[in-house]
Amino acid sequence: MKQLLTGNEAIARGAFEAGVVLASAYPGTPSSEILANLAGYKEIYAEWAPNEKVSLEVVIGASMAGVRAIASLKHVGLNVAADPLFTFVYTGVNGGAVIIVADEPGQHSSQNEQDSRWYAQSAKVPMFEPANSQECLNMVKEAFALSEMFDTPVFVRMTTRVCHSKSIVECGERAEQAVKPYVKDASKYVMVPANARQRRAVVEKRMNDLKAHIEKSPLNFITKGGKTGVIASGVCRHYAREIFGDSVTYLDMGFTHPLPDNILKEFVGTVDGFYVIEENDPYLKTWVKAQGFADKLKDVLPKYGEMTPDVLRRCIGLDIPPTVEYDRSPVVPRPPALCAGCPHRGFFYELAKRKDLVVTGDIGCYTLGFAPPFNAMDSCVCMGGAFSIGHGFNRALAASGTDNKTRAVGVLGDSTFFHTGINSLIEVAYNGSNTVCIILDNRTTGMTGGQEHPGTGKDARGNKTPELDIAKIAEACGITPVITVNPNNLSEVNAALDKALAHDGPSVIITKWPCVLKKSDDKEKYPALDKFEVSEKCTACKLCLRCGCPAISADKNTVVINPVQCTGCGVCEQVCPLKAIKQRSENGD
Amino acid sequence: MTKSILLVGVGGQGTILAGKIITSGLLSAGYDVKMSEIHGMSQRGGSVSTHVRYGERVQSPVIELGGADLLVAFELMEAVRWLEYKKPDGLLIVNNYKIKPMPVLIGSAVYSNDLLNALRGYSDIFEIDGFNESAAHGGVITMNLLLLGAAVTKAGLGSIEWNKIIESEVKQNFWDVNKRAFERGCELAK
């Protein structure tokens, strides 16, 4: 049956057809929908893990047990999972194991831009690189076959436009796989040095065998055209055809580790010169140069950023399509902002008023607290780093004796807390840090689209689970005070900040209110709220604009609350010095 | 010949659902179809775009500068932001609805009152009063379907069985309001 699927949906479909039994992931743009879709197949046990390292470990266990298993993660998630990965390559698999890694050229929703193909090279993992949804489906099936044939975990490398573009896919049927009995074998699975040294040699031999195998792979192929050549991988294969049509000779690279040498020689022999079109680092370019073909390489494309047909045309010097000539000066930037009713707003409003604070932030919607009007964040580096970075800052000031006024406070979200923030909290507790650890608990993984996590009380398939209690975890670490507040109540937030900052030791503040995009089932704890409006008492002082709420706008003499956008959080009502903001007369509008 | 439709708006305006419906419709009509959009942080009230391309054989899922046959702006300023993606002889469908970006809300920038006027001078343009029209036909949450109705009509795709497609992409409770808005959009664009 023909369907229009995103790359992520097609990966899930391919895994289903390949007979996958277990899937584990932590959400991360642009990979999140893979696991969400896998959870829709009743034949597959699909779960959210607290982080990528854990998810890969779960896959290792499942593979040992003899079933096909899949992990999906974003590029930076692979950093988290790198520890098990490098040794998983040594043990190899029993049931097939595939890792989908999604890179983000152009950093639409990421803190860096890295190229996972280097991981394939460094960890010695074979890698597929699909260009479209049909290839996603096909390649994930081939990846499982290859995994079992060569006793190795296998990568499928995606990029944003492959993950989130839809194209037509011919789907097949699920092929159930016989479970491979687990056989106890310490020399394969127990990586103590004596065994690991033996496996190290196995890995080298495997890579040599894979290289011989891949020299003949139909996934890397030449399409003859003109005397100009193009080597391309991933979605760039389509971009290249968009701008060159069939006027050039192509070397399509669907399999990018290990790399085949013979076909490259053959390709180079048929062209006068060639471009290498790829996303992120010059990975294929490095290969081509190492093979001694630098003289024919037309090295004109950028080394970073998203590759698009526009970029290609401009860098290669092709004709550029005409555009409308117009004055762009009235266009105002539209950066993302906390939603109307976002429970982070009240917290950041109060935090921004504090002096002498350094706010070490983290990865999530709340990172937007760095932006105007709050400007209430000083750093954002990696998942879970807020508390430990804050601790390092505070300890450095204390140890160097240079500054006794500045204080770092760490801010991260609930899902980030369970990801790796919990380790940072333990660091703070263990080392007696006076870092204030603030967890913005919006009851979901907000940024990536509202996935469940260990604190929400539900698993990936909607089943009830124990709801891990962040306050009790903090208390179990010996931290006091641990204060839970409603972030929409500014005086509660203020009092909590006062108390925590007065304490010379570890402290925790938990702001607890559900994400406005994910309505809570618990209507008693988190009731729907009445919307607000501006009354005639308003003098247009515009203090309420400091809430940074998208529902509030002002002209010279009037302030208006958009009744469609207002969710009734009430932060602006508390900010208004004239009590000119009140609940709408008609409930709920 | 590959055709390109670019839907642009503000995160939360429903461009993703509109893109889903239009691509499903194009698939049912036998076209090769590709669609691309960006998820994640930009959806939090940022500028968003859904690229739709269809024809006999589509290569790139993304539309180039000067590449859109039809630019559908769900919000006025977004029309100006993305206008360079439209072919000079392509059509702009613009919703006159304004959503002020954060720099305007906090007073550090101005939302020009002259945008619609300027657009009329730059381009072949079809204007829609999306807020009031949708409020009168299905409710403001269906503004995306209203614009979609206008878009498929102007794109010459009116013969596809859109009601069926809407039923397959939207929850049953919302069939009626969405169809009403969609049909109103078609009517306006005829």
Walk me through what this model shows.
The complex is a heterodimer of chains A (589) and B (190). In chain A, helix 11 links the parallel strand 10 and strand 11. A 7-stranded mixed β-sheet of chain A has the order 3-2-4-5-7-6-12, sandwiched between helices. A 5-stranded parallel β-sheet of chain A has the order 14-15-16-18-17, with helices on both faces. Chain A has a 4-stranded mixed β-sheet with strand order 9-11-10-13, sandwiched between helices. With 589 residues, chain A is an alpha/beta fold. The two termini of chain A are 45 Å apart. The model of chain B has no long low-confidence stretch (mean pLDDT 94). Chain B is an alpha/beta fold and 190 residues long. Chain B has one domain (3-104, 113-189): Pyruvate-ferredoxin Oxidoreductase, domain 3 (3-Layer(aba) Sandwich). At the A-B interface, strand 1, strand 8, helix 11, helix 14 and strand 20 of A face helix 1, strand 2, helix 2, strand 5 and helix 3 of B.
Q: Which keywords apply here?
A:
heterodimer; A: alpha/beta; Rossmann fold; 7-stranded mixed sheet; 5-stranded parallel sheet; 22 strands; globular; B: 190 residues; alpha/beta; 6 strands; 39% helix
SSE inventory with pairings:
The complex is a heterodimer of chains A (589) and B (190).
Chain A: E1 2-6, H1 7-17, E2 22-25, H2 32-38, E3 45-48, H3 52-64, E4 69-74, H4 75-80, H5 82-91, E5 97-103, H6 117-123, E6 127-128, H7 133-150, E7 154-159, H8 160-163, E8 165-170, H9 186-189, H10 193-215, E9 220-223, E10 228-233, H11 236-244, E11 249-253, E12 255-257, H12 262-270, E13 273-277, H13 283-290, H14 309-316, H15 344-353, E14 357-360, H16 386-400, E15 407-413, H17 414-430, E16 436-441, H18 470-476, E17 482-485, H19 490-502, E18 507-512, E19 532-534, E20 552-554, E21 559-561, H20 571-575, E22 581-583
Parallel strand pairs in A: 2-3, 2-4, 4-5, 5-7, 6-7, 10-11, 10-13, 14-15, 15-16, 16-18, 17-18
Antiparallel strand pairs in A: 1-8, 6-12, 9-11, 19-22, 20-21
Helix pairs in contact in A: 1-2, 1-7, 3-5, 15-19, 16-17
Chain B: E1 3-10, H1 15-28, E2 32-37, E3 47-55, E4 68-73, H2 76-82, E5 86-95, H3 102-105, H4 115-122, E6 124-128, H5 130-136, H6 143-154, H7 162-169, H8 175-189
Parallel strand pairs in B: 1-4, 4-5, 5-6
Antiparallel strand pairs in B: 1-3, 2-3
